[in-house]
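Project channel, design review

CF: Before we commit to the Rotaria socialis constructs, I'd like one complete example in the thread so the newer folks can see what an input/output pair looks like. Taking Major facilitator superfamily (MFS) profile domain-containing protein.
RD: sounds good, go ahead.
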Amino acid sequence: MTKSKISTTYAVSELKSAPLVCSHRLLLAILACFGFLLCYAQRNGFSVSIVCMVDPDADNTTTHADDSVAIQRNIPVSCHSHTIAKSRSPSQVLFWPKGTRGVILGSFYWGYALTQVVSSVIVNKMGPQRFLALVIFISSLSTLMIPILSKFHPSGVVVLRVIAGAAQ
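CF: and here is what came back for Major facilitator superfamily (MFS) profile domain-containing protein:
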């Protein structure tokens, strides 16, 4: 018995190339680009906006647990020249000291670091497009809830930042 080689030849006109302009691949690349841009803006935008949310005099006075000793720090007024007290109402100003702000800003990366392995398992089950849409929605929703919960207690903001970090 002899083995026969099957060879097929294609004419150049038979090969069709996918269009670049209206392809699904390009659409997914553009949507992923905007999704990642939104995630990076949410991650870094709160670091900028917390400056305007917090009263600049919250760092000048430190009180101890028994409220008996107050230490005045020598922070020059020129450092806070960018904040205008007349442009904000008292309900918009938060009195979070520097330590609280550090915990809030760092809480994003707690959720980000803790869910790396779990998210890789979930993305294999859901698929990349649905997973990306879901995590951007969860991250955006938790970022939009920050101004509402920031009026009550800083721990609510910490929880929202951990959720946003876990989603991203």
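RD: helpful, thanks. The longest strand covers residues 61-63.
CF: The beta strands are 61-63, 70-72.
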